[in-house]
């Protein structure tokens, strides 16, 4: 039995509330069980210097956790004077994951920055950030299309992410913290709505896992991403 009482192939309850901030061109609050992330998309009429003049757009991301997103207070990274290696790794993952679903020629020479701020953490914050980040990106792109600033939709597919793992000897979908902290194997799958693989992060946490177990995790991830994409579609409809 999972601590939450869920079956092995069941996501935590998903909620995506859109347009939750006044100024951002796209925003949503995504809740995956007790993991809550505020995602905003900001449009800028510039691109990084290394692609200036190329005609290509850029999508990037920043990620952070509020001090009391977890059971004990974490010091603000700004107070420490630098971002942790974990933060840098996650925001790079979010950025490259979302770019995988973008036609940068169609986007034109502009940048969209996705900010993902974890309000409450109970495992899977990077996956929730990617899934919610796509919704914020979709809303921002809709504004560009409505204004006539771009002629064709640069978003080629949905992008969503989910965690899977081996918990108590069984492959399970969408780990919460209680499972993640005890899992023998932990994996994050980033996929498109058409089940194209973007990135897999997988590691054994004490015992190795077999090819068959990995295949079982991938099967669970495909089901989970299907459900997340359905939630994205409902949110932006």
From TrEMBL:
Primary enzyme class: transferase
GO molecular function: 3'-5'-RNA exonuclease activity; tRNA binding; tRNA nucleotidyltransferase activity
Record-linked Pfam families: RNase_PH, RNase_PH_C
Record-annotated Exoribonuclease phosphorolytic domain positions: 11-140, 159-224
One GO term of the biological process aspect: tRNA processing
Keyword GTP-binding (UniProt): no
Binding site for phosphate: 86, 124-126
Subunit structure: Homohexameric ring arranged as a trimer of dimers.
Function as written in the Swiss-Prot or TrEMBL entry: Phosphorolytic 3'-5' exoribonuclease that plays an important role in tRNA 3'-end maturation. Removes nucleotide residues following the 3'-CCA terminus of tRNAs; can also add nucleotides to the ends of RNA molecules by using nucleoside diphosphates as substrates, but this may not be physiologically important. Probably plays a role in initiation of 16S rRNA degradation (leading to ribosome degradation) during starvation.
HAMAP family on file: RNase_PH
Alphabetized NCBIfam families for the sequence: RNasePH
Family designation: Belongs to the RNase PH family.
Protein name, UniProt field: Ribonuclease PH
Origin organism lineage: Bacteria, Pseudomonadati, Pseudomonadota, Alphaproteobacteria, Rhodobacterales
Gene that specifies this protein: rph
């Amino acid at each position: 039995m999972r601590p939450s009482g869920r079956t092995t192939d069941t996501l935590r309850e998903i909620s995506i509330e859109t347009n939750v901030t006044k100024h951002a061109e796209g925003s949503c609050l995504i809740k995956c069980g007790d993991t809550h992330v505020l995602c905003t998309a900001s449009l800028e009429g510039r691109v990084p210097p290394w692609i200036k003049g190329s005609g290509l757009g850029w999508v990037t991301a920043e990620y952070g956790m509020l001090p009391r997103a977890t059971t004990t207070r974490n010091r603000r990274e700004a107070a420490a004077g630098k971002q942790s290696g974990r933060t840098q790794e996650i925001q790079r993952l979010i950025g490259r994951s979302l770019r995988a679903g973008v036609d940068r020629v169609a986007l034109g020479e502009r940048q969209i920055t996705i900010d993902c701020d974890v309000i409450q953490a109970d495992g899977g914050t990077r996956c929730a950030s990617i899934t919610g980040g796509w919704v914020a990106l979709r809303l921002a792109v809709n504004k560009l299309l409505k204004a006539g600033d771009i002629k064709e939709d640069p978003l080629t597919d949905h992008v969503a992410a989910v965690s899977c793992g081996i918990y108590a000897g069984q492959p399970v979908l969408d780990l919460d913290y209680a499972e993640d902290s005890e899992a023998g194997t932990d994996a994050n799958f980033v996929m498109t709505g058409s089940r194209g693989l973007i990135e897999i992060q997988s590691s054994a946490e004490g015992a190795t896992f077999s090819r068959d177990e990995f295949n079982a995790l991938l099967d669970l991830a495909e089901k989970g991403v299907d459900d997340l994409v359905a939630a994205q579609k409902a949110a932006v409809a």
